[in-house]
Design goal:
Layout (H helix, E strand, L loop, with lengths): L4 H8 L3 H8 L8 H14 L5 H8 L4 E7 L10 H16 L3 E7 L2 H10 L4 E5 L3 H7 L7 E4 L5 H4 L6 E6 L1 H14 L5 E5 L9 H15 L9 E3 L3 H6 L6 E4 L2 H13 L9 E6 L12 E4 L2 H17 L8 E4 L2 E3 L5
Helix pairs in contact: 1-2, 1-3, 5-13, 9-10
Length: 335
């Protein structure tokens, strides 16, 4: 049974306020003897304060809501993108004395449930689509930083709720990756991604647009038959002679594709060049090591947390709504 602050106070023979003052390091009027008794009881019973209850009293919870947007019911913590973003956020949060609560959201109702049960100083939302942003904007009750949420330029200037955005310059990064392959003499370049809607603005859409622009800038007509998703590995394997290079929108996706081809004896490093995105920890350990766009997700998470803390402390200060982070092409053997 979890001990309460009232039980600690009763056993120590003091008021609840006195125990609270000791917990919150405001015990300058409490004798050293009483303070030691209270601290010993806290240690004896393993007492930890209810952070949400403290927040209601103090109007400050030091709690940050880390909300992952996805179509899945659960967060995939095996995805290096997810864990590296979280690592960066947690590093900065812990250093500043903040706590993080991680939650997967698939609907506006999920956000409403979270807000009813916890008091947050601010939010970081990850991977929100343009359509979901339109639904959720203005419903969050604290400042929010969005990571990897691409919107049409005009929307960044029309925001009513205090929110800011940290994105990779995915368009330019994809343009650079495609241009590198074109410079190597590849003209038939496939685009491999997770499913996406061309009518929306998002990470994959930006990368596809950069890929298309690079092809057109070299006078090449984009071939829609070379646009593939994760479900098309079999089709890609059968069509290997139709392209000489692949732009994959994630390192994990590139690894899965190489693994698929190897299992069937179809992979030829000299025949098919490949560039992907993220530069996750395992990219350099892949066989062959992946040429990739380094996005430094840990740094992105850390920057998001630092920006959110600035917004919490100085909410009225003017800031640019959008911060773009450049990707870095890391050349290895897969290309």
């Amino acid at each position: 049974m979890k001990v309460t602050i009232k039980q600690i106070a009763k056993e120590a023979g003091v008021s609840v306020t006195t125990v609270s003052n000791v917990i919150n390091h405001k015990a300058h009027r409490v004798s050293n003897d009483k303070k030691k008794i209270i601290e010993d009881l806290i240690e004896k019973w393993g007492y930890t304060p209810n952070m949400n209850a403290r927040a209601l009293v103090q109007s400050s919870s030091s709690l940050i809501g880390l909300l992952y947007y996805s179509f899945q019911e659960h967060i995939n913590f095996s995805d290096p993108f997810v864990t590296e973003i979280l690592e960066g956020i947690e590093q900065s949060a812990k250093a500043a004395g903040y706590f993080t609560l991680v939650h997967n959201v698939t609907s506006v109702e999920d956000i409403e449930v979270v807000q009813r049960n916890w008091k947050f100083e601010g939010y970081i939302m990850i991977g929100v689509s343009e359509a979901f942003f339109d639904e959720v904007h203005g419903k969050l009750t604290a400042p929010v930083v969005f990571i990897d949420t691409h919107l049409p330029s005009v929307k960044y200037q029309e925001l009513s709720h205090p929110c800011w955005f940290i994105n990779t310059d995915d368009y330019q990064a994809s343009y650079d990756a495609t241009n590198y392959l074109l410079g190597k003499g590849h003209q038939k370049i496939a685009f491999l991604s997770y499913p996406f809607q061309s009518s929306q603005t998002g990470v994959i859409q930006q990368r596809y647009a950069g890929y298309i622009h690079a092809l057109k800038s070299q006078g090449l007509k984009p071939d829609l038959s070379l646009r593939f998703t994760r479900e098309d590995f079999e089709q890609m394997g059968l069509a290997l002679k139709e392209y000489s290079a692949v732009i994959a929108t994630a390192d994990v996706l590139a690894m899965e594709f190489i693994h698929y081809l190897k299992e069937r004896g179809l992979y030829d490093q000299k025949q098919t060049a490949l560039i992907s995105f993220d530069d996750i920890r395992y990219a350099s350990l892949c066989d062959p090591p992946l040429t990739t766009i380094r996005l430094d997700q840990i740094r992105k998470g850390s920057l998001a947390m630092e920006l959110l803390m600035e917004m919490i402390k100085e909410p009225d200060e003017d800031r640019e709504a959008l911060k773009l982070i450049k990707g870095e092409l890391v050349i290895r053997k897969s290309s």
